[in-house]
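Hi F.,

I've been meaning to write this up properly since the lab meeting, where we talked about keeping a consistent format for the predictions we share between groups. The idea is simple: the sequence comes first, exactly as it goes in, then the structure tokens exactly as they come out, then a line or two of notes. No screenshots and no reformatting. I'm using this chain as the first example so we have something concrete to point to.
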Amino acid sequence: MAKSFIVFGIGRLGSTVAKELYAMHNDVLAVDVNVEKVKSISEDVTTAIQADIMDSDVLEDLGLGNFDCAVIAIGSSLESAIMATIACVEAGVPTIIAKAPTKRYGSILKRLGAHKIIYPEVDMGVRLAKSLSDNGISDYFEISKNYGIIEYEVAEDWEGKTVRLLDFREHFHVNVIAIRRNENLIVHNIADEVLRTGDAIIFFGSDEDLREIQKEHRIEKN
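Output, unedited:
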């Protein structure tokens, strides 16, 4: 079922989130003080408006209580992010997600009532470091402080075997949630899927257990 989102700030993060949410058939209102940014995204969201959220009357006119989720992607102005967060909290928006460039910035927004803080530059740094640390890793997504999802190229000695036979859960305490084969993502009957050259397995588990797969993979490739 479609949900309604309001996105404050149409920078790199805000515009990407807004466009993707709209592409997934959600209602999206994008808000930014910069009229050029508003024009650039107007075709890719339900509604885009130019507004200065430092004006309390503007925030009241947005009807924040009607949205399922607010994304506050304002990284350049802490004051504006604070105003947007407070307004969303007071309006009772069920989910408030705020972008923060620093931990201190994020801590302030969290105390004000934001449900989740994202640190784009830090998160991208973690993903890049993990992807560079081993050639087998295609990508890494942090789910929480100690858990993540990793996409890993199939090791040579895994080829021709099924996920059930390799029993990653028993050996590494991780779950296989999908197999990427060319442009296709296999998510059903994974246990009996025979792995092929060029496949990538998508694992979910703790960072510690995911590192164990890295270690074994690295040793076998050398």
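Notes:
DSSP finds nine helices and eleven strands in the chain.
Residues 9 and 32 are 5 Å apart (CA to CA).

If this format works for you, I'll send the rest the same way.

G.
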